[in-house]
């Protein structure tokens, strides 16, 4: 995160050594690590990402990624974050877990809706959006008609996404 303070080190960056999705996220100001699991994670804050991944593992599933999109996320940034997770071939569901103090959650919701519409998302999506403009954000998701499941807590979000992913696998397989 302090790479901008070290231009000599930054100049040594070799994009050929980076995974494409990680480079794409970096170029968009996000932190992303592919983990190979089944549940995509869209969060703001490294601590929230760690808690979300730990909770997913506690419920017997594996996170597909670590994605922290930062506290100044716009609608376009949220759309790009969602697109990056959708590009992760192993993701069978996505959990959005954001507690926004600085972040305008209605912008996050708008970006999620745009990404889901453009990509015709067929995997389950669960969203927990709490904080600044949280009620408006949840109304945007609810009224989108995209079947996004809303949660009011991390535990509720994880329980829902794990259940939905398992139900979908049971019906498909």
How many DSSP E strands?
6
Low-confidence stretches: none
Give the class from helix and strand content and strand pairing: alpha/beta
Strand order of the largest sheet: 2-4-5-6
Mean pLDDT value:
92
Spatial gap, N to C terminus: 42 Å
Description:
The chain has 173 residues and is of the alpha/beta class. Helices cover 47% and strands 17% of the residues. It has helices at residues 7-10, 20-27, 46-58, 75-87, 105-119, 134-143, 154-172; strands spanning 31-34, 39-43, 65-68, 93-100, 125-131, 149-150. Strands 2-4-5-6 form a 4-stranded parallel sheet, with helices on both faces. Helix 6 links the parallel strand 5 and strand 6. Helix 4 packs across helix 5 (105-119) and helix 5 packs parallel to helix 6 (134-143). It is globular. The termini are far apart. The mean pLDDT is 92.
Please supply descriptive tags for the structure shown above.
two-stranded antiparallel sheet, 7 helices, 4-stranded parallel β-sheet, about 45% helix, 6 strands, about 170 residues, alpha/beta
Compile the SSE list and pairings:
Elements: H1 7-10, H2 20-27, E1 31-34, E2 39-43, H3 46-58, E3 65-68, H4 75-87, E4 93-100, H5 105-119, E5 125-131, H6 134-143, E6 149-150, H7 154-172
Summarize the entry for a quick read.
With 173 residues, the protein is α/β, with parallel strands linked by helices. It has helices spanning 7-10, 20-27, 46-58, 75-87, 105-119, 134-143, 154-172; strands at 31-34, 39-43, 65-68, 93-100, 125-131, 149-150.
